[in-house]
Amino acid sequence: MVCRRCRQRPKDEQQRILATDEVYGFLDQSNISAKNILRLRELETIDNMTFQSLRTIVLEIATLVPRKRKRWKNLSDKHPLLLQSMVDSELFDHVLDDKDANCVALKELEEENAVD
Q: pLDDT tens, 46-93?
């Protein structure tokens, strides 16, 4: 549902806002299904560089670690470059802070970045 203020925005911007919420919502699901992966591929038509980088990273996460259980730990252990790209993009700061504040590997990664 779109609020009154958002309805006054251009249609492209409305579509981008709704699609961004949808993509972040995939990370909250217990399983990112094949249908969700198809949906992520369909969202390629939205012309916004920030949104496309978000969509690409979530698509990679969906294909590599579709299950929510220990998703962040598995990313840090098995796919540290993807986790690093998430941190570098700064699009997932609120997700990483909320979901996995106790992840040792993530903390080590942040400490390495602070030193560099």
A: 888 999 999 999 999 999 999 988 888 888 889 888 888 888 888 887
Q: The tokens of 10 are what?
A: 């251009």
- CA gap 87, 95 in Å, rounded: 10
pTM of the model as a whole: 0.76
Helix spans in the chain (H): 4-7, 11-28, 34-42, 49-64, 71-78, 80-89, 93-99, 104-115
CB atoms within 10 A of CB 45: 8
Is residue 71 within 8 A of residue 37, CB to CB? The reply is no
